[in-house]
Amino acid sequence: MATPASLTAPLAELRADFPLLDQNVNGHPLVYLDSAATAQRPQVVLDAELEYLEKRNAAVHRGAHTLAAEATEEFEGAREAVARFVGARADEIAWQSNATDALNTVALAIGVASRGRGGEAARRFAVRPGDEIVVTEAEHHANLIPWQELAAQTGAVLRYIPVDDNGLWTIDDARAVVTEKTRVLAFAHVSNVTGMVAPVPELVELAASVGALTVLDACQSAPHRPLDLNALGVDFAAFSAHKMLGPTGLGVLYGKRELLNALPPARTGGSMITTVTMERAEFLPAPQRFEAGTQPVSQAIALGAAVGYLADAGVPAVLEHEHALAARLYEGLSEIPGLRLIGPAAGEERAGLVAFDVAGVHAHDAGQFLDARGIAVRVGHHCAQPLHRRLGLTASVRASVYLYNTADDVDAFLEAAAGIRPYFGL
Question: How far apart, in Å, do the first and last CA atoms of the chain sit?
């Protein structure tokens, strides 16, 4: 495994760790610019999962035999590695099936508390008629629909922080929406469409001033920038394994220790209980209380290897590298006639992605044009229909970079993008 101290080191070395990237697509060398949807996995991550399955595959936290003990040790070691990577304690990290599931876990559990379950400790989470839940107009559906459902079930009011014509919002916009009635403030750390980076410390302070919980969608930040959840002060957070060099089928729920232990679980069954009678059950402390049933053991072990790889590469270096590529993307796209770029303007902070609209060409047609040239990008509404509707769009094209991308990738994409409108006779 290549573990450069900085990504200014030869990228070919690091790129070689990703076997999928070494192929042709439609007769062209693959240019993979869709990591905001799913990142590719280095060989060390593939090997970690396979080695576990070949040598230690067993039920964790159950059997007393050697394989079960070894599996449990490796499984919990992965939890500790992920916790260190995001600035948390191991007992503040609960495995979920994906980040969407993690966000649903919080919303569903608040719904359980709102119905009077969980005892005295859970009353702090109760949402009642007339209370308010606040999101942003830019949210991914995963951090919108669960809150719509919670509002519908409890009689609360769902409010949102509006975006401007570029899809952006400010802390002042948030202050205009958050009130003394706000019980939950949920927002993305980094928008998966605009690349905007939210002012997290100010939002945490704002929520705390009215006694509201903060729920952070960290799917586009955990893979790409240094993240210290304890230092940020958010109450809950969620992120995905498959966006940070890990496997699908695994998400991570972070919660402050005291909150997770007070929150009543919404999913119940084996592995998360202490005592069960025919009349009632008592639940384990966090994180196991949110991990009912058989666990994604091999996936967790693979994610542990993934965060180890990212730590070795140096997350600050990853961020610097992506910023340079994003600036190259933005500048190059801004010079192509007929493209409307979404999100922060030149010189403003943005994550390593750029979404845009091609005048006169549907995003899916543009995506197929690029794919025919071996370039993989995301097209569609990116699970953010309200944001696209606000911008007057049904879909957009999104190019996103990661640590294994190069300036040559960006340049190949820009050359192809310049040919989209001419190809369609525009």
Answer: 46
Residue 4 has pLDDT above 80, yes or no: no
Q: Which amino acid is at 62?
A: R
Question: Which pTM value belongs to this model?
Answer: 0.95
383 labelled catalytic: yes
11-42+315-423 in CATH: which number?
3.90.1150.10
Give residue-wise pLDDT tens across range 193-237. Answer: 999 999 999 999 999 999 999 999 999 999 999 999 999 999 999
Residue 422 and residue 197: Cα distance in Å, rounded?
34
Pairing of strands 31-32, 375-376: parallel
Beta strand ranges found along 114-212 (DSSP E): 132-136, 157-161, 182-188
Reduce the DSSP state of residue 372 to 3 states and report it.
coil
Q: How many CB atoms within 10 Å of residue 152?
A: 10
CB 94 within 8 A of CB 260: yes
* Residue-level pLDDT at 3: 37
The answer regarding whether domain 49-311 maps to CATH 3.40.50.300 reads: no
Contact by Cβ (8 Å): 225, 74: no
Longest dimension (CA), the chain: 72
Inform me whether the pLDDT recorded for 168 exceeds 90: yes
Cβ burial, residue 392 (10 Å; 0-12/13-18/19+): exposed
11-42+315-423 shares its CATH topology with 49-311: no
Q: Which of 401, 387, 407, 392 is nearest to 162 (CA)?
A: 387
Q: What whole-number distance in Å separates Cα of residue 347 and Cα of residue 365?
A: 30
Angle between helices 407-417 and 363-371 (to 10 degrees): 120
Active-site residue identified among 157, 383, 414, 418: 383
Domain parsing of the chain, residue ranges: 11-42+315-423, 49-311
Nearest residue to 99 via CA among 216, 219, 191: 219
pLDDT tens column, 378-390 = 999 999 999 999 9
Spatial CA neighbour of 253 closest among 291, 292, 285: 291
